[in-house]
Amino acid sequence: MENAPNFDDLYRDHFSYIKFVCLKFVKDESIAEDVAQDAFVNVWRKLHTFKGQSSITTWLHRVAINQSLMYLRRQPQIERLQLEDVVVQLLPARTSHPRQRIALNRAIRDLAKGYQMAFVLREVLGYSHPEVAQLLGVTEGTIKSQNYKAKKRLRETLELH
């Protein structure tokens, strides 16, 4: 891309935000700093691929989420990801009433972990099926199935309320 953003400026201007995004996933400040550093290593390596189709902040946010998920995937217990915390921050525009957010968070929390991850990554964070499959290290078919079943269970659960 012509006029590609300067890496030093990106790092200086966005590191705190990227660390904050990572912290929402890993829940430990020192680990979040390490994950954010790793995210910026990826930014440095892939800056030439930024095409400007979204804002640089959106692109950096996506890199931070990817790096956080890759970190969590390497951990023995992926439960460190507090999905309800992530969802609460991402849903206000879609679900304005506090009772709806609480009911949705409970319903998501009650899903099996695989269903939770597939649903949040695909439906809340907007990743494609192939991207979710790659992030979680499973097949695209598995993600499609888990996401379908998650939505079906969420509809059933939320219709009861």
Question: What does the model show?
Answer:
There is one protein chain. The protein is an all-alpha fold and 161 residues long. The chain has two domains: 79 residues, RNA polymerase sigma factor, region 2, helix turn helix motif (Rna Polymerase Sigma Factor, Chain: A), CATH 1.10.1740; 80 residues, Arc Repressor Mutant, subunit A. 73% of the residues lie in helices and 0% in strands. The chain contains eight helices and no strands. Helix 1 packs across helix 2, helix 1 crosses helix 3 and helix 6 crosses helix 7. The longest helix is centred in the first third of the chain and has 20 residues. The mean pLDDT is 80.
Radius of gyration from the alpha-carbon trace, in angstroms: 17 Å
Q: How many H/I helices?
A: 8
Biggest sheet overview: none
Order of helices and strands: HHHHHHHH
Structural class: mainly alpha
CATH superfamily of the largest domain: Winged helix-like DNA-binding domain superfamily/Winged helix DNA-binding domain
**Total beta strand runs:** 0
What number of domains?
2
Keywords:
8 helices; 73% helix; Arc Repressor Mutant, subunit A; 161 residues; Rna Polymerase Sigma Factor, Chain: A; mainly alpha
Explain the layout of strands and helices.
Elements: H1 7-26, H2 29-46, H3 56-73, H4 83-90, H5 98-110, H6 113-124, H7 129-136, H8 140-159
Briefly say what this structure is.
With 161 residues, this protein is an all-alpha fold. Helix content is 73%, strand content 0%.
